[in-house]
Amino acid sequence: MTEILSVASECAPLVKTGGLADVAGALPGALRPLGLRMRTLLPGYPQVMAGIGKARAVWRSDALFGGPACVLAARTDALDLLVLDAPHLFDRPGQIYLGPDGRDWPDNPERFAALCLAAAEIAARGADGWRPDILHCHDWQAGLAPVYLRDRFPDAPAGIVQTIHNVAFQGLVPVDRLDALGLPRSGMTPEGFEYWGQIGALKAGLVWADRITTVSPTYAAELLTPEFGMGLDGVLRARQDRLSGILNGVDLADWAPPFRLASGKARHKARIRAEMDLPEATGPLCVVVSRMTEQKGLDLLLEALPALLENGGQLALLGSGAADLELAFERAAGDPNVAVRLGYDEALSRMLVAGGDAILVPSRFEPCGLTQLYGLLHGTIPVVTLTGGLADTVIPATPAGLRAGVATGLQVFPITSDALGRALARLCALHAQPEVWRRMQRNAMRQPVGWDRSAEEYAALYRELSEA
Ligand code: ADP
């Protein structure tokens, strides 16, 4: 059996700020039927410690970046966990990456370097009588693990995979922390982990890993361009033969469609209107569930909103993030057909996805995107920009797509507020044709959005590496 150690800074359902958590939480279960065992190493944040129940120590350090630490082995229903219990690094209230002032915790480099060191030691020497064949690192928070493994344990046989969930987050660390982090000075070169005079944690993972994956084929291609590579396109072009894109899936055990289309949609829609104080309307109820950042293109939606409202549509948005965007949407909610809920709310997000007619994802770039997949599953028509995983998962309602009866959503290109406005007007026109609309909904719900195919692709990658 191929054994994998997955290293992630978040993992649903224990701790989540975005799609990384969904993937880290779902992948082990998707791999199990294929005969692969994945154990997940996570930081011991308070919510993780509270969620794991009975646990036993399988690895210890007397001094891990300023305090004692141990790794606890524990199980939840779906996960086989290794939890880095280091109270001086992780036992703090609030958001996992940000302090109460809304800025990164100043010791984030040490916090995640600690996770990486523990990962490297376990990958090399084993713990709990178990040693993985593969070390799978997610995002910059796990990016130093490949360096520690190869630098400190050059004979360790484990193969290394580094996954990019979003290249916008690179984990840059001032160079004066080099020795404190225990990194090899020889790595501080442009061919190593140096990034314009700083230490680049994600770059380290990309250079030291045996294979690099990202979360959709289109994003894998986009990452090679200066426009999307965010300074790492050159590194990735140099390692292009090691890079592949594997789409994220939806955890169907967690997201099974809770209704039959005709009756269920209406019931959930009524709940949304009651919960968010929206009037009845004949046009489509569009929903958004999103972090509110530049990436997600919600400023474009603000500009395009009149095209939706003038055509009888409505908007219900759940999100949180940038203060200026939050304020602008609160203002937009002055219109009776716009409802905005600021914050993070798992239950409301599910209600919106289930009851909306359409789900809007107008991202400027989107490595994979999960909410359009949740939309497909529930017959909630996705309106997406033509980028990254959005381009890979939605079949557009072009005249040909409609004629062939395969369309599942609308694609917006170029990524501008004008094009988005035109797409929203078109959405309203399609919604007014019940036959066409129902056909799109049925197509959407038939789309395979589970993990099956992607789990096979990861399994093939792991097997190839462990047999190399
Ligand atoms: P990203 O990881 O860039 O935020 P994804 O679409 O890959 O984008 O994943 C976002 C995940 O977070 C989805 O599961 C989505 O439902 C969830 N999510 C985002 N914002 C909220 C919110 N305000 N409340 C509840 N869930 C949210």
Describe the protein.
40% of the residues lie in helices and 20% in strands. It contains 20 helices and 18 strands. The strands form three sheets. A nine-stranded mixed β-sheet has the order 3-4-5-2-1-6-7-11-12, with helices on both faces. The chain has helices at 19-31, 46-51, 87-90, 108-125, 145-152, 201-208, 217-222, 226-229, 233-238, 252-255, 261-276, 298-309, 323-332, 346-355, 371-377, 388-393, 399-403, 417-431, 434-446, 452-467, and strands at 2-7, 36-43, 55-61, 69-75, 80-85, 134-138, 159-164, 172-173, 194-195, 198-200, 211-214, 243-245, 285-292, 314-321, 338-342, 358-361, 381-385, 410-412. It is α/β, with parallel strands linked by helices. α1 links the parallel β1 (2-7) and β2 (36-43). α4 (108-125) crosses α5 (145-152), α11 packs across α14 and α12 packs across α18 (417-431). The protein has two domains: 2-249 and 451-467, 3-Layer(aba) Sandwich (Rossmann fold); 262-446, Rossmann fold (3-Layer(aba) Sandwich). The longest helix has 18 residues, at 108-125. The structure holds adenosine-5'-diphosphate. Residues 18-19, 22, 166, 289-291, 318-320, 344-346, 349, 368-371 line the site of adenosine-5'-diphosphate (ADP).
Largest sheet: 9 strands, mixed
Which fold name fills CATH's third level, the topology of the largest domain?
Rossmann fold
Give the CATH H-level superfamily of the largest domain.
Answer: Glycogen Phosphorylase B
Q: What's the N-to-C terminus distance?
A: 15 Å
Cofactors, ions, other ligands? adenosine-5'-diphosphate
Helix segment tally: 20
Q: Structural class of the helix and strand makeup?
A: alpha/beta
Shape type: globular
Strand order of the largest sheet: 3-4-5-2-1-6-7-11-12
